[in-house]
From TrEMBL:
PANTHER family hit by this protein: RNA POLYMERASE SIGMA-E FACTOR, SIGMA FACTOR F FLAGELLAR
Record keywords, A-Z: DNA-binding, Sigma factor, Transcription, Transcription regulation
Superkingdom, natural source: Bacteria
A family per Pfam: Sigma70_r4
Extent of the signal sequence: none
Transmembrane segments: none
Biological-process GO terms, alphabetical: DNA-templated transcription initiation
Biological source species: Actinacidiphila oryziradicis
Taxonomic lineage: Bacteria, Bacillati, Actinomycetota, Actinomycetes, Kitasatosporales
Identification of the protein by name: SigB/SigF/SigG family RNA polymerase sigma factor
Limits of the RNA polymerase sigma-70 region domain: 48-117, 132-192, 216-264
Length: 268
C-alpha cells in the first residue's frame, strides 16, 4: 500500500459509491500512517479528495436556483470537502460521507450568506429568511395552503412584524437591478434610473428651521424686526440703520449679538 501504483488513480476510472466508500476507509487508514507534508501523504490526500468529489456534486444539486453560480458552488463545495478530509478521524467510527456532507453544505451556505447579498443585511435577517422559507414549506404541506404571517410567527416563535421584516428586507436586498434596466411598470417608460426621485437639498434646512423657530420667538420685538429686514427683506445694514434711525455700526453690533444668541441656542 506504500507504493503509488497500489492506490487507485481516479483519472483512469470512476469508482462506484460502494467502491469509493471502501477505498476511502483504506486510504484514511493509510493517511494516518504517513507523515504530513511528505509526497506520499499529499498523494493519498489528493486521491481521497478526487474520490469523494461526487459528494460535492450531490450537495450542489440542493441549490438548483443558483445555476448561474454553479462553478462557484463547486469550488466552494470542494473547499468544504478538503476541510472534511483534513478533519476526519476514522477512529470515531463515523462514515466519511456522514461527516463530510454537512461540512460541504455548510461551506456552500456560508458562501451565499456572506457574498450573495446585493446590500448588507444583518445576520439575524439572513438567518430569519432561511427559517422563514423552511417554515413556509413545512406549514404549506401540513395545512394544504399558504400559511399566514400569524401562523408563521407562531411556528418560528417570533412576532408577525419580524416575519414581515425578514421577508421584505432580506428578499429585497438579495438581488439588485441595474439603474440602466428598463422599467417593468405598465405606466412607466425608460430606465429605472430615470424614475428615481432626487434629494431636495432644501430638506437639510428643515431641522435648522424647526430648531430656530422657538429661539426666534424668544427674541425681543426689535431683534425679530432686524432679522426680518436683514434675512427676509434682504436689506443692507445701511438700509436697516435708516429704518431704525441708528448708525450702520450699531446695526452690525446688534446683528452679531442676535446671531450669537441663536447660535448658542442651536448648539445647546
Amino acid at each position: 500500500m506504500g507504493r503509488r501504483e497500489d492506490i487507485v488513480d481516479m483519472s483512469t476510472g470512476v469508482a462506484t459509491t460502494d467502491e469509493a466508500r471502501g477505498l476511502s476507509k483504506v486510504m484514511f487508514a493509510r493517511l494516518g500512517e504517513l507523515e504530513e507534508g511528505t509526497p506520499e501523504f499529499q498523494y493519498v490526500r489528493n486521491t481521497l479528495i478526487e474520490l469523494n468529489l461526487t459528494l460535492v456534486r450531490y450537495a450542489a444539486r440542493r441549490f438548483p436556483s443558483r445555476s448561474a453560480q454553479a462553478e462557484d458552488i463547486a469550488q466552494v463545495g470542494t473547499i468544504g470537502l478538503i476541510k472534511a478530509v483534513d478533519r476526519f478521524d476514522p477512529a470515531r467510527g463515523v462514515e466519511f460521507t456522514t461527516f463530510a456532507l454537512p461540512t460541504i453544505l455548510g461551506e456552500i451556505k456560508r458562501f451565499f450568506r456572506d457574498t450573495s447579498w446585493a446590500a448588507h443585511v444583518p445576520r439575524r435577517l439572513q438567518e430569519a429568511r432561511i427559517c422563514l422559507a423552511r417554515a413556509e414549506e413545512s406549514l404549506g404541506k401540513s395545512l394544504g395552503r399558504d400559511p399566514t404571517d400569524a401562523e408563521l410567527a407562531d411556528a418560528m416563535h417570533i412576532t408577525e412584524a419580524e416575519v414581515a421584516e425578514a421577508r421584505a428586507v432580506a428578499d429585497s436586498a438579495y438581488t439588485a437591478s441595474s439603474l440602466d434596466a428598463v422599467s417593468t411598470a405598465d405606466d412607466a417608460e425608460g430606465t429605472l434610473g430615470e424614475h428615481l426621485g432626487l434629494t431636495d437639498p432644501r430638506m437639510d434646512r428643515v431641522d435648522d428651521l424647526v430648531s430656530l423657530k422657538p429661539l426666534i420667538a424668544s427674541l425681543g420685538e426689535r431683534d425679530r424686526a432686524i432679522l426680518a429686514m436683514r434675512f427676509g427683506a434682504e436689506l443692507t445694514q445701511s438700509e436697516i440703520a435708516d429704518e431704525l434711525g441708528v448708525s450702520q455700526m450699531h446695526v452690525c453690533r446688534l446683528l452679531k449679538r442676535i446671531l450669537a444668541t441663536l447660535r448658542e441656542g442651536l448648539l445647546a
